[in-house]
């Protein structure tokens, strides 16, 4: 079971994220802002991070930049959630290492689909799939 770290300062948004991801079969751990997540990143050991952009103490981009500086988490995929849809912030996020950018309000089904897409193993490690036609 993959572990998803949800980094979000809004308690209600954390709850929606947690419930959506748990229903999809993920183990969810939470942090209240980027600083909290960074202080506990090694203990939490996430396979993927879903992170808000605007948070107190350390915002999402600051967190991602710091995460990329941690050798054990340098390649951990990050999904960024934000109410800001501007291209400049998205480019800044991509440069920092954000894999997916989702604008709030978000559709939980679309969020889970995005998480599943980037949390999946690399294509070469997928087992062969056999599809049988109708009998």
CATH topology: Rossmann fold
Total of domains = 1
Name the helix and strand elements from N-terminus to C-terminus, one letter apiece.
Answer: EHEHEHEHEH
List the strand order in the largest sheet: 2-1-3-4-5
Helix content: 40-55%
Task: Give the end-to-end Cα distance, rounded to a whole number of Å.
Answer: 35 Å
- Determine the mean pLDDT: 86
* Basic shape: globular
Strand content: 15-25%
Describe the fold and architecture.
- The protein has five helices and five strands, in the order βαβαβαβαβα.
- The protein is of the alpha/beta class and 135 residues long.
- It has one domain (3-122): Response regulator (Rossmann fold, 3-Layer(aba) Sandwich), CATH 3.40.50.2300.
- α2 packs parallel to α3 (60-68).
- The radius of gyration is 16 Å and the shape is globular.
- The model is unreliable at 123-135 (pLDDT under 50).
Furnish the topology, listing elements before pairings:
Blueprint: E1 3-7, H1 11-23, E2 27-31, H2 34-44, E3 48-52, H3 60-68, E4 78-82, H4 87-96, E5 100-103, H5 108-119
Parallel strand pairs: 1-2, 1-3, 3-4, 4-5
Helix pairs in contact: 2-3
Briefly summarize what is shown.
This protein is of the alpha/beta class and about 140 residues long. The longest helix has 13 residues.
Short descriptors:
Rossmann fold; five-stranded parallel sheet; 5 helices; 5 strands; alpha/beta; 135 residues
